[in-house]
Structures
1.
Amino acid sequence: MPGEVATASDEQEAFEGPRRRARREREQRRAAAARARAIEDARREAKQKVTAAATAPKAVGRGVVRGLKLITWLIVFVAISIGLGLVLYFTPVMSVRNLVIDGVQDIPRDEVVAAVAVRTGTPLLQVDTDKVANRVANIRRVASVRVQREYPSSLRITVVERTAVAVKELPDGTHLFDRDGVDFATAPPPPGVPYLDVEQPGPRDPSTKAALAVLTALRPEVAGQVRRIAAPSVASITLTLTDGREVIWGTTDRTDEKAEKLAALLTQPGHTYDVSSPDLPTVK
């Protein structure tokens, strides 16, 4: 029993001599001190491991190294590009030495050069192509224009000239009109171009636009026979052919159908061809 064991231990201690007891107590103290040192050593070792893990530098991965290299090369590339751009912009290394003009027939080349207004030796990057195009577009005969830099030393101007589809006699001479109703020149009438008979010709005039819409819808073999087109209003358009025959067109409704019916109708003999109602065309 526990009480008996404790009594036996007390009796055993009572029989120990002073020396044996002192030795036993010293051994117990040494064992306790050894355990304490072992616990403290273990605690210090654990603390050192945690501290070393927290302060140890992390290994840099390959992906990070590649990313840093890529960023470095990008910085170098951007710096070189900026430097090259500055050289090209501020120095005559690539400057205008040749002016190439395409598409001009009736427009004098000198007139286009004057409108371009770019001095020889101007760096190409300093040339504002939009402004140059706007200046050239102000020439009456120019329908459209494109301006391009061609390195190392050329500026190309590509012009599309207006084409006369109708002419009108005015007090100061014969005026040429393109398909948009733009009065772009005063000159002798080109061969085969019909006369336009409207009150106030111009790109915003409804009668002008209606008459030109009819002319541009005609088949080539029919358009070549038209000597005059009259449009006192948008609802009463008539055509006079070179041989004197007349075409009553009416309005611009169903223009493509009327053009197709007229091409077939003109193969029949007659003087007046009425396609104002394309469902019931007539010949008189």
Note: The first strand starts at residue 98 and ends at 102.
2.
Amino acid sequence: MTNAPAIETHGLVKSYGRVEAVRALNLCVEPNCITAFLGCNGAGKSTTIKMLLGMIAPSAGEGTVLGKRIGDPNESREARGKISYVAENKPLYGYMSVEQTIRFAGSFYRDWRDETAKELLYRYGLPLERKVRLLSKGMRTKLALLLAFARRPELLILDEPSEGLDPVGIEELLQTLVGQCAEGTTVFFSSHQIAEVERIADRVCILDKGRLMVDASLDHLRESYRRIDLVFPTTPCEPDFRMNGIESVRGAGCQLSVFASGNVEAVIERAHDLRATSIEVAPVGLRDIFLETVKEN
């Protein structure tokens, strides 16, 4: 089993006229792990995924997926044969029934697993004879996920995979993703649901306005990021705390709130030097890290 990155990009850019949807993206997705791709609407997540899959061409830069160059049509096609992809809008043929859709998809792939498809069909409670156009949003999502999970891909790329699912469906999805990774499949998924990401992701990438702002393991983020609340006898000077590792500093009267990705001890030492009367250090969750990242950018 190779240790080469499942996905790697260097200076990847996608422009639409004067608008840069993706800006100089340097992304590295390690194999055999679950990587979450976070960002607000319009951050460039779906555009990035479409470039990785050869659906749209980059304006500049380069990348590889499963060792195949995304800019080479033949290599990109070869890579796609080893990838299961679920798009954000879950496009399916509306005139087909659920049964026809499953049979149709299964005829394309050498790694299709009939038993797995039958098991998922039962678990998801999909109505075999119903036309796809008559399915609810959640049922369409489940059908799209079945088509992806019934294969044995090297790489799963999922764009907002939990959209339309109820809490039970989301729980099943998360368990399936963990199981797929345990079987050796690399999982790369975009999501707005931070609670889901915190439960299963090994690594987190945060994209904002087309730029990669955070790329770290979830364990590293939990260990490194802190919020430091300070109180002083007089109004403090915010620039005194702007140093390496400090993501934001906000003041209100005699209080300061410092959001740090590192260098916490230096902040505490400086607070003591400036005669702080109260110093409180607290860990932060991924939600706070995400909100601070996109807010500051």
Note: The mean pLDDT is 93.
3.
Amino acid sequence: MNNSGDLPKIGLALGSGASRGWSHIGIIKALLREGIEPDIVCGTSVGAMIGACYLAGNLEKLEKWVLDSSRTDVLKFFHIRLSQTGFVDSDRLGRFLYENIAAEDLLIENLPKRFAAIATDLHSGREVWFSEGGIAHAVRASMAMPGLFPAVRQEHRWLVDGGLVNPVPVNVCRALGADIVIAVNLNSDVISRHSPKKPESDPGKLKGVLQNLRQTTLEYSSSFFPEGEKHEEAPGLIASITSSINIVQDRITRSRLAGDPADVVIAPRLARIGMLEFHRAAEAIAEGETCFRNALEEIRKVTGRA
């Protein structure tokens, strides 16, 4: 349903959080089932990707892809070449975005709802809002995590992941006209004291195009796809970087939400899912739906849909 009369304009702020972002799919689907359709969608990093996908009409297509994908499918996105500016295969990522998120020529201003993706200016540290222009380009800039994805050129500046400055873009929703903002914070429990051990992955899956990268990616994949904590061992380089990113995301998120509070905050509990465990989409989507149900009464109250 569309807002009309005296009903407030609803903004949906979708936060950053890498693989935890699949929970956005469960939350959006649950919102729509309740007849609560956002008028404005703003997203950072994976939140920008899911928000753009939803407004472009590709959410079901993306959900099917992620539910059918395996750890091997995710690792195919990584191409280890030390001379490059990131681990991710940019060409493969581009194809994925055009096929599953938004067509290469689709513009933000042609979407049915107002949308913005948030990135960070690598030189000044300022947040950059994409509210017009190519959708896929905006998403790529918003999710350009330093060291993993290459920075994205935009006119005279280089842009990286928006989660560095604005992990949950509540203020952007309000700036675009939202009266009520529902925010999704994926970082509420990333500073976890105890991460449960999950079943070990089948080593036989690392075959084919990945075989030549196996040794190079071993530390990388084990850090982003944790098999369980070993506190007695010193953390490796990638593990230290991952934990540092989690700490920064947590602290910035707390600060930004304190300064720009949302009317409702949905906070899925996803610390058990590693940063790049995109193949665990079913868990993340289910957790998003569960958290939405827990917040439904409050959402109905603040949006006037009671």
Note: The chain has ten helices and eight strands.
4.
Amino acid sequence: MPPELPDTQEVAGEQEWMARALALAAQGRGLTSPNPMVGAVLVRDGRVVGEGFHTYDGVRHAEIVALEAAGRNARGATLYVNLEPCCHTGRTGPCARALISAGIPRVVAAMPDPNPAVSGRGFKELRAAGICVDCSCTSGSSEEARRLNEAFAWWVRRHRPLVTLKTGMTLDGSLVLPKSRNGHQTRWITSEISRAEVQRMRHASDAIMTGIGTIIADDPLLTDRTSLPRRRALLRVILDSRLRLRPTSRIVGSARGDLLVFTCASPSSLRAKQLSAHGLEICRVRPRGGRPDLAAVLDELGRREILSVLLEAGPLLNQAALQADLVQKVRLFYAPMLVGLGGSLPGLRKRKLAGSLPIRELSHLRTEVFGPDFAVEGYLRDVYRNR
């Protein structure tokens, strides 16, 4: 017999239940990588009977957590989940089979698995067992679901992390403010509210990357200061072709196995050994133009199961990443001020502006306000396409 259709009350709450599944999935931010974030909600007779979300260390997938919470009430319930249930055995058994055994008559999913090798197979197995699979009624949630796991989607297809270029600037494009007469920086460009959002971006990322120029100029820590739980420490990545990193810098002093330096210099040199003694790792990659090859850097990070990289750098590294077409997403924070320094978009040095980069339009633009500032976000690549 075909599965029973949901009652009118449940259909009316489709978006509500899927929004709940997405909210649950987001609770796994910082806790699931290199797995995707998944939330699941079981609804029976118009009420939630079980729900859950996945964490890597928790091992169990969201659907299994929800089934266990529902117990016998799972039979006859509709499952709302932001990602196609798996049908293969990895660290856990297949969720599709567990749903079939539990007597779930209907599954509402926001998106298929982004892995081309398995996409659609979970849905196929559920349908073969007589379960109604519905992806159309939550079309409004599909974009949010894709954004939630865009880094996983890119990594699983390209074996490299998704790179987001982030910077803060004035309205006339300056990345720095004039220094005071005593030579000190006068103030931050962006507001405290914007900087708190940047911390949330760091928390959502597996790694943060910058160049040695930024380290020498600013002596930053580059840490996740949200105090939110995360499964593994934010990996701090520095590109330093000649190992100019000072052992006395704050970032070296705070290294606890979470600092990785890519260089063209020999890792067996005296300077490399001195730095390694402070608890950081030095990785030699092939040079390109006298600097670490960015493609090789991202390949290595991908091998280490780094799904997402937040690029917080200066003009030189920004320009190199854009020229190499290695940036998938940008997020630019603008402060309402003019400093009269000229300036340009991040990554474009004024003296090399002409002909240095092709004109490329951003897609899926979004703007958000953060106190007195505003941010513009867009994509340079479709993270769900293989090419």
Note: The chain has a mean pLDDT of 90.
